[in-house]
Write a structure and sequence with these properties.
The chain has helices spanning 6-13, 19-31, 42-55, 61-70, and strands at 2-3, 36-37. The chain is mostly helical.
């Protein structure tokens, strides 16, 4: 079982320091057949974090749309 908070999930959809290690951990958990968990609040938190990255221009509109769509 792996619990992912909002900041971890953002790393899964947008490259940041730590993204590679997070994605490796998620892949290992999935290969092992383990479940991934998060809070119900994560949905709003991740959308807010992505919108903030768009607003501060750390994500371009295309990257924002891709990350938002994948999430």
């Amino acid at each position: 079982m792996l619990y992912l908070d909002s900041s971890a999930l953002v790393k899964h959809y947008v490259w940041e320091p730590g993204t590679d290690s997070l994605n490796a951990r998620v892949a290992a958990e999935e290969r092992a057949g383990h479940s991934l968990f998060t809070s119900v609040l994560t949905f709003a938190d991740v959308h807010h974090a992505l919108a903030s990255k768009l607003k501060d221009k750390s994500l371009c509109p295309v990257a924002f749309a891709q990350a938002n769509g994948k999430f």
